[in-house]
Amino acid sequence: MTAVEEETFVTDTPTALAEPGEQDPTAAAPGAGAMIVFESVSKTYDPHVVALEAASFVIEKGEFVFLVGPSGSGKSTMIRLLLKELEPTTGRIIIGGRDLGRLPHRKVPQLRRNIGCVFQDFKLLSDRTTSENVAYALKVQGESRNSIRRKVPEVLGLVGLTHKGNSYPDELSGGEQQRVSIARAFVNHPPLLVCDEPTGNLDPDTSVGIMQLLYRINRSGTTILMATHDREMVDKMRRRVIALEDGRIARDERRGGYASE
Ligand code: ADP
């Protein structure tokens, strides 16, 4: 087993991120076996911008959840909080059984390795090929050359880009670039994939292909949280929808649509 697999936090034991012998303070917490728990989380930016207000929800392992809401409603803030890029003003966030408020600084990189991120603007390195973009992500995580050599073609196959391994981003279509960024986010099979407007720059047909890929990744057991404005996609998929309005959770529906009915 690789070091990364050992440290993956999807596990039946909520102490996966704890040191051996360390007591896990969240062990008895409600929802400790879930993937994401927000307990009355608020975030106020200086001086008085309330971006999130008393947000509470539980996302179980394996769920596919859309996060919707108008611009400025708090979606990015929520994503940055769960990556521990921001600290909540009040409330508690538990990811993979670990209370982020108690997560030591030195464990933050490990938390982020367990959360694959996909963005609207792909964030690819323009001077590197498809294979090199994916390999680079592994390299910075300290993976061995052997494991990189094995994992890159495997994940490119999964996203349908085997034939584009030597292409540079500007030689790829938007949909293909997004596939590279999904390959990069998923190459270590993180238990949680967070997608921020992944189809925002793509035409409807291409978006369908990307959604099918994300759906397939979800079916393999990965929890997906996807912030989106893609009304048609949300309505078609009929998955759980958490809707934000002015920093508050306005709606949380099991098989929801983009707008309330
Ligand atoms: P969304 O992702 O839904 O567009 P955001 O989380 O980016 O919403 O923003 C929520 C609110 O917080 C908005 O009013 C926004 O202007 C404000 N905001 C976001 N980031 C900051 C920041 N770094 N400093 C101050 N206010 C911010």
Small molecules held by this entry: adenosine-5'-diphosphate
Which strand-content bin applies to the residues?
15-25%
Detail the poorly predicted runs. Answer: 1-7, 10-28
The percent range for helix content is 25-40%
Q: Tell me the total number of β-strands.
A: 10
The number of helical runs is 8
Radius of gyration over all CA atoms, rounded: 18 Å
Q: SS-based structural class? A: alpha/beta
**H-E order:** HEEEHEEHEHHHEHEHEE
| Biggest pleated sheet | 6 strands, mixed
- Strand order, main sheet: write it out: 6-7-8-3-9-10
Q: What is the overall silhouette?
A: globular
* Straight-line N-to-C gap: 48 Å
What is the mean pLDDT? 89
Give a verbal description of the structure.
31% of the residues lie in helices and 23% in strands. The model is unreliable at 1-7 and 10-28 (pLDDT under 50). It is built from eight helices and ten strands. The chain has a six-stranded mixed beta sheet with strand order 6-7-8-3-9-10, with helices on both faces. A four-stranded antiparallel beta sheet has the order 2-1-4-5, covered by helices on one side. It is an alpha/beta fold and 261 residues long. α7 (204-219) links the parallel β7 (192-196) and β8 (223-227). The protein is globular and about 45 Å long. Bound molecules: adenosine-5'-diphosphate (ADP). The site of adenosine-5'-diphosphate has 11 residues, from β2 and α2.
